[in-house]
Design brief:
The chain has three helices and four strands. The chain is an alpha+beta fold.
Length: about 90
């Protein structure tokens, strides 16, 4: 996901309001856009989507994604036993 560029004003408001970079990334990824008069867009996560995200996070323990070197998902699994990790990327 591309990093959202923040104006100096947005950076200042983010800091004043205690909004984290992670929160902004989550809104970017899971949010829905609504257009405003004047050409702007409001992006937010709906109450229904927040409920779905919370439920998914409650069930995410020990879930893993195995990816190929080309960033393709090869499989998903529950890590029910230890997995051997390499100290380097191929």
């Amino acid at each position: 996901m591309d990093t959202l560029r923040l104006t100096q004003h947005a950076q200042c408001r983010k800091q004043q309001r205690g909004i984290s970079d992670l929160q902004i990334r989550l809104i970017q990824f899971f949010g829905e856009d609504r257009y405003q008069k004047g050409g702007g867009t409001v992006t937010f996560i709906s109450d229904k989507e927040i409920k779905n995200l919370r439920a998914a996070l409650d069930r995410i323990d020990n879930v893993a994604l195995i990816k190929t070197p080309t960033e393709t998902a090869a499989t998903v699994l529950h890590m029910t036993r230890p997995i051997r990790f390499s100290d380097y990327a191929s």
